[in-house]
Amino acid sequence: MTQVLINLRNRLHGGGLWVAPLGLRLLLAYEFFSAGQRKLGVGLGEAPNWFVNQAFPFPFGLLPPDANWLLVTLGELVAGIALMLGLLTRFFALVLVIITVVAIAAVHWPESWSGLAQLWEGYSVSRVESDGEFRGNFRIPLLFLAMLLPLLFSGAGRLSLDHLIVHVARKRDALEPIVDGASFALAALVFALITIWLIPSWGMVLALLGVALLVRDRIGATQQQSKS
């Protein structure tokens, strides 16, 4: 019975290498490309009033609203096509992570909150108002973030142009996963990027953790080289 379960697990894993990321890619491609199309319908030359009045986090707050409108429109359109094809998937997943986090910070994040329980009131599709203050409506973009992370960390899967390019270039052996301090450091830095605009203290802690892990990994590698 144990061997049957192991075989089942291994075959599911083998099939998942081909099809598991595909649903995420296609659904996210549709959502973001459609959002980009709607913005394109409004026009690239001038941002609408509702967009102009948003307070964007640093460094996007330094840009004119029209520039931000152009960047997010083109970003959603190009990244949507790239996800559909599975081309440069990790890069464009990161682009969409940034777009989504900035949108949460500027549009969907609560005006103020005094604890995680109160913050969680904003995990909603519709706007939540309490005591005359906006509590948030970040449920949908947060779900998009959770869907983008597997593509950022694990890639597009084997039904993708990324996999085809690697296969044609015969570089598969060079792309084996590496689990070390640097890999965990990169993960910490990704989550720091996500949280720094939403809960700055968390983002700073994660960024420091990522840097510390990178330094520790480099020191360990240097010591290993000196011994050899």
Give the secondary structure arrangement, pairings included.
Blueprint: H1 2-42, H2 49-52, H3 65-85, H4 89-108, H5 116-119, E1 128-130, E2 133-136, H6 139-154, H7 161-169, H8 181-195, H9 200-227
Antiparallel strand pairs: 1-2
Task: Provide a concise account of the structure shown.
With 228 residues, the protein is mostly helical. It has 9 helices and 2 strands, in the order αααααββαααα. The model has no long low-confidence stretch (mean pLDDT 91).
Tally of discrete structural domains:
2
Total of DSSP H or I helical runs spanning 4+ residues: 9
Main sheet properties: 2 strands, antiparallel
Structural class label: mainly alpha
Which key phrases capture this entry?
single chain; 228 residues; mainly alpha; 2 domains; two-stranded antiparallel ribbon; 9 helices; 3% strand; globular
